[in-house]
Amino acid sequence: MLRSLLFVLTIFSQIIFRDDFFVVSLTSKTCSAKNQDCNMAEVDGAHPKLFMLDGIKVGHVQEVKLMEGKIHQMITRSLRPLLFEIPDFLSKEECEHIIKLAGKKGLHESTTLPDPDDDIAYSDEEKVEHCKNLLSNDRGSDGKISTLEFAAFIKQDFAMSISDADVETMLQKVNFDKDRDGLISEKECLEGNHVAFDQYMRYLEDNHPRERTRLSKQTWLSVTGSTDVVLRDLQQRVKLLTKLPKYFIENSEDLQVVQYGVHGHYHAHYDSTNEWNGQASRCCLGNYSDHCSLCRFMTVLYYLNDVTDGGETAFPVAEEEHINQTEIEKEDRTNLSIHC
Fold first, then answer.
1. 239's torsion region: left (phi>0), alpha (psi -120 to 50) or beta?
2. Looking at residue 277, what DSSP letter applies?
3. Which of 81, 162, 236, 311 has a CA positioned 20 to 30 A from the CA of residue 128?
4. Cα gap 137→148, rounded to integer Å
5. Residues 86 and 10 reside in one and the same domain
6. How many domains does one find in the chain?
7. Does the predicted TM-score (pTM) go above 0.85?
8. Is 40 contained in some domain?
């Protein structure tokens, strides 16, 4: 899929920007000039209008003009979620240029675990907070954490998909399940070895990298305000493609460049937060932090190179009418090391 583009359009029940709700429209104006911001009109005098592309049906091909002298084909790959592919969206030279920029910026592997130097005894307050976080995954509301709920906790807080055998071994090593009944009570958690827990998680990350939810290197490139011709032209193409107001495009997140090596992966996940609690900062406004709320209206993926095996993007529940989140987790369908 060299030089192709894949983008996913997902509408959540509450997509919040500034302090207003978006209004989604299936009709748009045609921009007559590159600098014209033709879809910035407001609805009801308050709510910004977003344009939503129409997929028609799976396999439908639309022609779009995004640059002078070339017509691109936009192919509908899915309606749930709304998913399009545009072959040859980027030239070979543009792909190589972006890869070079990312290399100069420096690619870094992210980690979700504490530094080994932080292996000091937990205070009582820290244990209480740690156990409170663990017990918040008690979906059965029985006051105890099952092995399935424990695995969900590890996946959520440490970005790792661990096997049943790993769960059993971990509970024994960290002494979180003293009575060996396969359940963790608050008392057992508080009396467990929390430093050993951190050490075992680091062991899994170092020795079983394929169990991580994400295994890759990445960096971010600033596009808005950049003097780089390729990045500026790329932003213009996205604006013409999405028909979104210029303001929204220019205030989107920076361009994330990700490198996946051998066995590299990113398990299936939601690419946006489906609601905002009113307190967390919003990543889309440039307020990046570990706990910012991802307010993404759509995701645009550029494929910069090709490989002999792998390299695909999977959508495990695409076109499914009803999605049972509990069943998905029970079957571990988001684990692409198993299902892809």
1. alpha
2. -
3. 162
4. 10
5. yes
6. 2
7. no
8. yes
